[in-house]
Amino acid sequence: MNTTEEKKIPKATAKRFPLYLRYLKMLQSEGIERIQSHTFSEVTQVPSATIRRDFSYIGELGRSGFGYEVNKLIEVFGSFLNIETEEKIALVGCGNLGRALLNNNFRRNDNLQIICAFDSNPEVIGQKISGVEVFDIADFPEIVKEQNIMLAISTVPSQFAQDAVEKIVEGNVKAILSFAPDRVKVPADVTVQYIDLTNEVQTLLFYEQIQRK
Predict the structure, then answer these.
(1) Which tens digits make up the pLDDT trace of 125-161?
(2) Where are the domains of the chain?
(3) Do 143 and 169 meet the contact criterion of CB atoms below 8 Å apart?
(4) pTM (two decimals)
(5) What is the per-residue pLDDT across 24-36, written as a single tens digit (0 to 9) for each?
(6) Residues within the annotated binding site for NAD(+)?
(7) Binding residue positions
(8) How many angstroms separate the CA atoms of 188 and 100, rounded?
(9) Which segments constitute the CoA-binding domain (predicted)?
(10) Looking at domain 3-80, which of 3.40.50.10860, 3.40.630.30, 3.40.190.10, 1.10.10.10 is its CATH number?
C-alpha cells in the first residue's frame, strides 16, 4: 500500500518533514538508535500527537511500546524528501536579503544549491556573489531552461513581485519561494510558498509576551 498516494499530505505537515529529518540526523550522530514520540517531541518542540499524525501520512513507521528506529526514519524521510537528488535553484533579487541567501547558499544541504542569480540593476548584473554569477532578469527564461532549473527564490519587494514571478513562470519554473508577503497570480500548475518575515516576528513576539505573563 502506498500511503502517500492514498492520503493527501497537508501543507503544514509537509513543512515539518525537513525539520524531523534534521533532528533525526542529529540523534543519529549522537548514537541514538530508537526514540519514542514523546521524547522526539521534546527535541523538536512539536507535540507528540502531531508527530504521530504526521508520521501516519507516510505509513506505519513505529510500533506501540517500541517507538521508532532512528535509522529507518532517516531512510524513509530522506527518500520522501528526495534528498539524494541535487536541486538547482535560481535566485531573483540581489539586494541585502538576496546577498545573505547567496552567502549562506544552503550550506547544510548538499542537495540544494543556488547556481545562478538575477537582478535588474545594471550595477549588479555581471557580478559574482559568493561565486554565483548575477544575470539580467530579462535572460531568466533562457538560462533556467538551459540549466533545467525548476525552483526559484524571489526576494523582490512586493511592488515588483508580480513582474518578477511572471518572468520566473516564463522560464517554466513550477515552484517559487517568495519573500514578498503579497499574493501573486500564477498558473494553476505553479506553486508559490510565501515567507512573511514581519508576520513571523510578530507571531514570535506574541508568544514571547505570553511566556512573560
Answers:
(1) 999 999 999 999 999 999 999 998 989 999 999 999 9
(2) 3-80, 87-199
(3) no
(4) 0.65
(5) 888 888 888 888 8
(6) 93-98
(7) 93-98
(8) 31
(9) 82-183
(10) 1.10.10.10
